[in-house]
Please model this.
Amino acid sequence: MSEGSANVGISTDKPLLSVRNLSVKYGAIRALKGVDLDVFGGEIVAVIGANGAGKSTLMNAIMGDVPRAGGEIWLGGDRLPSRSFQVVSAGVCLSPEGRKVFAPLTVLENLEMGAFPLRDRKEVAAQIEKVYNLFPRLKERKSQYAGTLSGGEQQMLAIGRALMAKPRVLLLDEPSLGLAPIIINEIFNELVKINDLLGMTILIVEQNARKALLLSHRAYVLQTGEITMSGGSKELLRNPEIEAAYLGKR
Model:
């Protein structure tokens, strides 16, 4: 996989997705403590950190799946709603940790479920073809029940389902989780294509820090609910602190 996607098409005028002072509490536990981050149009931005750092909580808070104790989230200058179906309709979709495909439904039915904000059946059909072009294996298995797919195929389906709503920003929560290295490479190569060919803006949280930094343009380090470092992904790859904490030996 090439190191990072091309910077062509990135809009640096103002962030497409902006998170400001975001806080989340689970009882007395502060899972997120005033998180700030920006994602510009056309970028891939990674959030890396250890287990329990708050990465999935960040994604769920953006999606409205957990209550926000404080802060604001903006999409294209408009405040992002706090309820998940409204977030999807506004233009942000999540491929969740653990994939969470609808096991009793076919591949095609899963994709159609992801298209609920689209009203035009022709538009839905066009999106399905785009997903099939990105992931030809899904087309081969379109009549197969999602629960019978391999882990890699389910991950492709989860990403494809999120793309069905034509999001402005695609969120990816631990897409490498539980997959073999060869399948991880395949998935990440497809993410580069999604960014390059579709111009899709992507925010990814990932425990596999090296893969995330190789994929992304910029990255944030999340530690116990706080952003402790940020910068260009190539620079962070060469940072001794990052290498010692997250990358290990090459």
